[in-house]
Design a protein that fits this description.
Length: 226
């Protein structure tokens, strides 16, 4: 409930800021035609682009969440990033320290990790990770104090627990570069292309619409000057 209220408040603030931006654009266009006949409909249409863009982005986020596998939740910050061999890193935006590994493949073993995944590195088909040890939390989601980290082999689904970062570095064969769970992104080429396509869908139509409207305003102003 509190997350929904927070998301609604955030959306209302963002909508307000975009409306102010649209008003400022309209005011600038209005002044640009000072003492001349103003294209009121075009100015109004330009002013509406920023707030309408928010609705467009929200609609895209909802469609992606429904139809794209392992899609992060753009509303609440929940994340789900694919890992090799049918596994995925999943977690809640409000509690990223309790991230975990999961699979929908009935033929795969559910990884037996001892607690929440605080940070990780993916090297080939092996995940090297650090357990979270929050001062308070769910008893079943906190690793024992003497267990620091783990090695997760996605090929076998087996997890090996370790007691120190030094042991983790030795298991990896190099100093591990751990990324916080909520910031981890799959480097699979298909996943990278998917993110690029999604970002283009999010950004290109609103940007193109705003630039087109501004272009039309400037063009009308130049024509009147001639």
């Amino acid at each position: 409930m509190f997350e929904m209220m927070g998301a609604l408040i955030g959306l209302m603030v963002l909508a307000g800021l975009l409306s102010v931006l649209g008003f400022l654009i309209a005011a600038a266009a209005w002044l640009l035609f000072w003492g001349r006949q103003r294209p009121k409909r075009l100015i109004l249409m330009t002013a509406c682009v920023p707030p309408l863009s928010l609705g467009y982005v929200l609609a895209c986020a909802a469609v992606f969440a429904i139809f794209v596998p392992n899609q992060p939740d753009q509303f609440f910050g929940d994340f789900s990033e694919p890992l090799p061999n049918g596994y995925a890193l999943t977690g809640l935006g409000k509690m990223p320290e309790y991230a975990s590994f999961d699979t929908d493949d009935p033929g795969k073993n559910q990884p037996s990790i001892l607690g929440g995944v605080q940070s990780l590195e993916l090297d080939g088909q092996t995940v090297y990770g650090l357990y979270s040890h929050p001062k308070s939390g769910f008893r079943d989601s906190v690793a024992p104090a003497d267990i620091c980290c783990f090695v997760f082999d996605t090929r076998s689904g087996q997890v090996r627990n370790l007691k120190s970062i030094q042991a983790l570095n030795a298991a990896a064969g190099h100093p591990v570069r751990l990324v916080q769970s909520q910031f981890f992104r799959s480097q699979d080429p298909g996943r990278i292309r998917l993110r690029e396509v999604e970002n283009t869908i999010y950004l290109f139509p609103p940007s193109a619409a705003l630039l087109f409207c501004l272009y039309r305003i400037v063009r009308v102003r130049i024509r009147e000057k001639q």
